[in-house]
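Late entry, glutathione complex.
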Amino acid sequence: MNTTPFPPELTLYYSPKACSLAPHIVLEESGLRYSARSVNIRAGEHRGADYLLLNPSGTVPSLAIGEQILTESQALLTYLADLVPERELLPRPGTLARARAHEWMNFISSSLHPAYRAVFRPQSYGGDSPEAVESVRVRGQERLLHALKTVEQRLSGNIYALGNAFSAVDAYLFVFYLWSFDERLGCEMPERSRYRALAHLVWQRNSVRKVVARERGVRPYELPIEFTGADASTTEVA
Ligand SMILES: N[C@@H](CCC(=O)N[C@@H](CS)C(=O)NCC(=O)O)C(=O)O
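Prediction complete; structure with ligand written out below:
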């Protein structure tokens, strides 16, 4: 028997500008009550015993649902969207459109996100060998360029990831559009006009502005100047 009350008590564990920004946005879009707790990755809080009890992977996001914990961005996005079907944050289960949403989210979590990780933190794959680390970084750049081109191709004919309406997939894509401006990437980003147009639409949403402001209040991070104009002067510490 399911004893979780509805709506359940929801607490998101997140880190500013991390992939947890996607479920953070979707929580805001859901209209549900929730708490958001930042995890200080820089101070190693995600590797502390308390956090590892919540999420043995030592990563954000994690979502406390009453007494239970759910991890993995795609699982959180799916669960949250299904809590509020009337908001149409994902297509109905059992439809091809729903499978398309999972196709996108799997691609993001298994190709786009790891490519960034290989460039930002090549030592997490390359270990102690400087040659291996450098090789991971370079291969990561190649994979990232390929993944960004794939995003652009997949968006062909669509305004949003799934067509003409905003969905949780767009929140997920938005995070990695922000990351594409990071100076640490060390390579020129490919043409991404469709991705840019999508990100700009997402940026117009009140939920996104609110959540980004909350996260930047915890730890300032720079936004692409194309979003902010002259107001992009916050110190980058992500
Ligand atoms: N597959 C996981 C990946 C989560 C992940 O790698 N999160 C990053 C932030 S974007 C993190 O917590 N990194 C800390 C670390 O790996 O030490 C998901 O999609 O939720």
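Residues 232-238 have pLDDT under 50 and may be disordered. Will revisit in the morning.
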